[in-house]
Design goal:
Length: 165
């Protein structure tokens, strides 16, 4: 089962390896990990996507809560949330395929961020499903390079970190 976990941590050296170690130590692979400062620059938010047994993940969550640098842990698995991911992709764009690349980009509301005589670089944001669909449509045209941010999430509604405590 896929789990999306958000962890609010002190923005300090060494926090990331301690958090990642809890997952690897229990045989969990981290499918994606995104970390950035929050409104308060002394605090960072990690969004971790993993798959696995719920019982073991519950143990990982309890262990995360015990780490001194961890402020709050939310498992969004059974909650409503907004999820977005960013994609940067370089696509072959020879004369015969340039129009097709632009049509696909327009359909997915992707932005052209760089142009060369033989390629377009596109930027897109959306759900992981939207990003996957865009990649699959561009693949036959010739993907040269691709990078994804991994999902970031926010709980739905008025409740935020402060009111969730």
């Amino acid at each position: 089962m896929k789990h999306t976990i958000s962890v609010l941590v002190e923005n300090e050296f060494g926090v990331l390896p301690r958090v990642a170690g809890l997952f690897s130590g229990r045989g969990f692979n981290i499918d994606s990990l995104s970390v950035a400062p929050t409104i308060d620059e002394s605090i960072s938010r990690m969004t971790i996507v993993t798959s696995g047994d719920e019982r073991i993940l519950e143990q990982v969550t309890k262990q995360l809560n015990k780490l001194i640098d961890v402020i709050k842990v939310i498992d969004f698995t059974d909650q409503d949330f907004v999820e977005r991911e960013m994609l940067l992709v370089k696509v072959t764009a020879e004369a015969e395929t340039r129009a097709e690349v632009l049509r696909i980009a327009d359909i997915f509301r992707a932005n052209v961020v760089d142009v060369t005589p033989r390629s377009y670089s596109l930027e897109a944001t959306g759900t992981p499903q939207k990003i996957n669909a865009l990649i699959e449509l561009l693949r036959p045209l010739g993907l040269k390079e691709l990078v994804r941010s991994g999902p970031v999430v926010l709980g739905r509604g008025a409740k935020g970190w402060k009111s969730a405590e």
